[in-house]
Amino acid sequence: MRIVFMGTPEFSVSALTALFQAGHEIAAVVTQPDKPKGRGKAVLMTPVKEKAIELQIPVYQPAKVRAPEFVEVLKQLAPDVIVVVAFGQILPKAILQLPKYGCINIHASLLPKYRGAAPIQWVIIDGEKETGITTMQMDEGLDTGDMLEKVVVPIEKDETGGSLHHKLSQAGGKLILTTLEGLENGTLKATPQTDENTCYAKMLTKSLGDIDWNQDAESIERLIRGLNPWPSAYTCLHGKTLKLWKAEVIDQDLKIPAGQVGEVGKDKLVIQTGKGCLSVTELQLEGKKRMNLQDFLRGYSIEKGTVLERRTEA
Questions:
Q1: Within this chain, do residues 50 and 167 fall inside the same structural domain, yes or no?
Q2: Are residues 108 and 20 in the same domain?
Q3: Is-above-0.90 flag for pTM?
Q4: Number of CB atoms found within 10 A of residue 146's CB
Q5: Does the pLDDT value for residue 306 go beyond 70?
Q6: pLDDT (tens digit, 9 = 90+) per residue, 234-252?
Q7: C-alpha–C-alpha distance, residues 10 and 291, integer Å
Q8: DSSP 3-state assignment of 184?
Q9: Phi-psi region of 27 (alpha: psi -120 to 50; beta: other; left: phi over 0)
């Protein structure tokens, strides 16, 4: 097929690579404009742009994809299908109806559940046992188009936002190939979405990681995993931000206030929560490197009875 590919972050790269390696004709890649990042504000290319340049595919970076002049560019490219993976802009009707096979989106959840911007992290935070990839015929709604194919991906006990991101990215790259084959052969049956059991996976913010110790230990542990590596879960220790990267749930209550350190040893840091305790095994103090608990406690003392607080007011 002749394809225009629309995507921006690292998650999209697997699908672009899979389409290229499968021999599809990728007429162009459309990605978000380059933006300054980091302390030095250096302008960095999007991961999709980097891969497109490597594969010698023409790249377009419109500030507004719906601009009439860019819609005309797409018409001139005359794609059979537009494949969209975490592109970052809403496509207007003029683009959705342009290709023969329409616009196909690779969505990182088992639709119709977890529509929205951050389904990968929210399925972990919410305690789901499985998630997956859905290919979808795009319409003018937000993740509401007809479903084409799905693949289920189990969520492991120690799954993080980062590890699940990688699994789903790889799964999406494989699924789009069978979806396009089915579209071309006319063997796919589109399934309309219902609004039953749907929830909105809202965009992640740094403040989401501010741990509320009044919550139960299982919820906090899932938050830690879901927000790893970004934006991370954190608390406040002696006025400094303390990021928690890994912790284990302990089914016991120490009869002390939530957020208080109940046990400390060379390989033990147990914190009381609203229900149960957390044993922290990997953490990072503001201005320091991420490290395991033993290394951390060699250089920083935490006393039993220390109270960890929210970084901001609830």
A1: yes
A2: yes
A3: yes
A4: 16
A5: yes
A6: 999 999 999 999 999 999 9
A7: 26
A8: helix
A9: alpha
Domain assignment of residue 307, yes or no: no
CA atoms within 13 A of residue 1's CA, in its CB half-sphere: 24
**What is the extent of the structural domain holding 37?**
2-201
Same-domain pairing of 116 and 217: no
Q: Give residue 107's pLDDT.
A: 98
Q: How far apart are CA 34 and CA 8, in angstroms?
A: 10
- Tokens 């592109």 belong to residue: 87
Residue 204 DSSP symbol? P
Write out the H or E segment, with its range, that includes residue 171.
Answer: helix 161-185
- Residue 33: how many other CB atoms lie within 10 Å: 11
What pLDDT, in 10s, does the model give residues 251-280?
999 999 999 999 999 899 999 999 999 999
**Tokens of residue 3, six digits:** 């394809």
Which whole-number Å values give the CA distances from 28 to 45, 55, 76, in the listed order? 16, 11, 11
Location of structure tokens 């120490």: 254
Q: In which residue are the tokens 């990021």 written? A: 243
Whether residues 112 and 241 share a domain: the answer is: no
303 burial type by CB count under 10 A (0-12 exposed, 13-18 middle, 19+ buried): exposed
The backbone torsions φ and ψ at residue 174, rounded to the nearest 5 degrees and listed phi first, read: -75, -40
Of 170, 201, 232, the domain-final residue? 201
Per the structure, the count of domains in the chain is: 2
Q: How far apart are the first and last CA of the chain?
A: 52
